[in-house]
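seq as requested:
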Amino acid sequence: MNMFGKKNSGFSLVELVVSVAIFTIITSVILARHSQFSGTLLLENLAYDIALSIRKAQVFGLSVREFTTGSSEFNVGYGVHFDSADNTSYIFFADRDRDEAYGGSGEIVETFSLRRGNTISEFCGILANGTEKCTDSGVTFLDIVFERPNPEAIIKSNLPGNTYESARITVSSPQGTTWNVETFITGQISIQK
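struct tokens:
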């Protein structure tokens, strides 16, 4: 009891300020970690989206699918085109002329845009001996194409005379996190951090 006969209850001003400061610090840490986690999750989803686009090209290329309704173009391959001139998008295309490569705007089925600062930081064609031909060694585009009746992937770049065994596409977030999507000529697609 104090001298006025009342019992003190509640927080003093110092206790209240300390409690608010602790709450503010904890909230700030949680929000900062949430942003980082969210960015990593979005990049992982982007890697899976690219893999699904390649799988879609595989399914469309191996099945009998008309290019556009009423076009009577059934004998086309499908593929995905990556270009170093634009690292924020990639193209899903129909190989209408069956040259096993992207042939311009007349073959575009869909263009996919990357968002939130994520980019395609690198793509590589990998030779049978393990040598990588990447964007930093002169590769300006990479196409992954599937054409009936061959179930294997056809991987081509602007460098002539190269027969690639696999292709790797690396996506990066603004924070520097990377994910790789690798496609083998057998048609297998894998995603790795």
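Helices lie at 13-62.
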